[in-house]
Every structure is written in structure tokens, then in C-alpha cells.
């Protein structure tokens, strides 16, 4: 019986790591769920936000080898020349040759302020939008407060990876 997947596998690989294990003192085993694309042995992958590129040794599911893993598969896989200190939970594994994931220092997002008693302000000018239509409704705001929706630039204090929704929407 073949596996059924709700997403096409021709999209770029996107595999967030759930865990990294060191087995037997030498073997590094990475675990995660394939969100998009395909991962298989011999594939060259890049981990973000570390910008670490390596080759996949093997892919496994339930302690058995797997020729390839696709959207929805929870898999374990081995890679060459990577230490548990190099990558960790939350890193994104992507295909080095097809839209590899990168570190993001800042990004623009539409947010709705929920369950927050303080006003949010920083070195940017918020742009208030209608929560239903997503259209700009006011300009030159100094802050956003509970219940407001806005387009904001977020700047991360630590390395992170953010994907464009239009490229990876399900």
C-alpha cells in the first residue's frame, strides 16, 4: 500500500529538525518531519540559519532504510561531517540546489495584537490594517495595542530562518 500525501513533492525541501542525536559516540542522527519536497541519500542539503552544507548518508523511517522521504514523513537521517554542536532543534534542512533556506535578520509580517496589555512600539512606524481585508486604514501611528492588526518589520535578536509564505503555502 503506497503512502498518501496531501502536498506535491515538487516543492523545495523544507525539513525542520526536531532533534539531533549522537549514537555510539560517532554517528549523528537527525530527526524531523518533511514539510515540503523530498529528501534522499546522496542529496546535498543546507542547514539554516547555520549555512552548513553537507551530503545525506542515509534516510530511515521506523529503524528501516527508506529510498526517499516526502511531505508528511517523520524521518531520521545521517549526514557527513556534522557535529551535534553544529546544528540543533529548530534548524531547517533544505535542498542546496533548489531554493536553500537562509538566515534571516529581519522580515515583514502582518500581526494581530492579542492578549497583550502594553502598547507595542519600537524604532519602526507601525502601519495599521483592517483585520478582515488586510488593507491599510491609518498612517503615521506611534504604536499598536490590543486588538490592532498591523504590518511590522521584525528584527531577530538571534539567528533564525523565515520562509516566504507564497513559496511554501500548503
TrEMBL record:
It is found in: Cytoplasm. InterPro entries: EFTu-like_2, GTP-eEF1A_C, Transl_B-barrel_sf, Transl_elong_EF1A/Init_IF2_C. Residues 31-92 form the Translation elongation factor EFTu-like domain. Residues 127-166 form the GTP-eEF1A C-terminal domain. GO terms for cellular component: cytoplasm. The keyword Cytoplasm applies. One of its GO terms (molecular function) is GTP binding. Keywords: Cytoplasm, Elongation factor, GTP-binding, Nucleotide-binding, Protein biosynthesis. The keyword Cytoplasm applies. It holds the Pfam family GTP-eEF1A_C. This is Translation elongation factor EFTu-like domain-containing protein.
Amino acid at each position: 500500500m503506497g503512502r498518501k500525501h496531501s502536498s506535491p513533492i515538487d516543492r523545495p525541501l523544507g525539513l525542520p529538525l526536531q532533534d539531533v542525536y549522537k549514537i555510539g559516540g560517532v554517528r549523528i542522527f537527525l530527526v524531523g518531519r518533511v514539510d515540503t519536497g523530498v529528501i534522499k541519500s546522496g542529496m546535498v542539503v543546507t542547514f539554516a540559519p547555520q549555512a552548513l552544507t553537507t551530503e545525506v548518508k542515509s534516510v530511515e523511517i521506523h529503524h528501516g532504510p527508506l529510498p526517499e522521504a516526502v511531505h508528511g514523513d517523520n524521518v531520521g537521517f545521517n549526514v557527513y561531517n556534522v557535529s551535534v554542536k553544529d546544528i540543533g532543534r529548530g534548524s531547517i534542512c533544505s535542498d542546496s540546489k533548489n531554493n536553500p533556506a537562509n538566515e534571516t535578520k529581519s522580515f515583514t509580517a502582518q500581526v494581530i495584537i492579542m492578549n497583550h496589555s502594553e502598547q507595542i512600539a519600537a524604532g519602526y512606524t507601525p502601519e495599521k490594517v483592517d483585520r478582515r481585508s488586510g488593507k491599510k486604514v491609518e498612517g503615521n501611528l506611534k504604536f499598536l495595542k490590543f486588538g490592532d492588526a498591523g504590518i511590522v518589520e521584525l528584527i531577530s535578536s538571534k539567528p533564525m530562518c523565515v520562509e516566504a509564505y507564497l513559496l511554501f503555502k500548503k
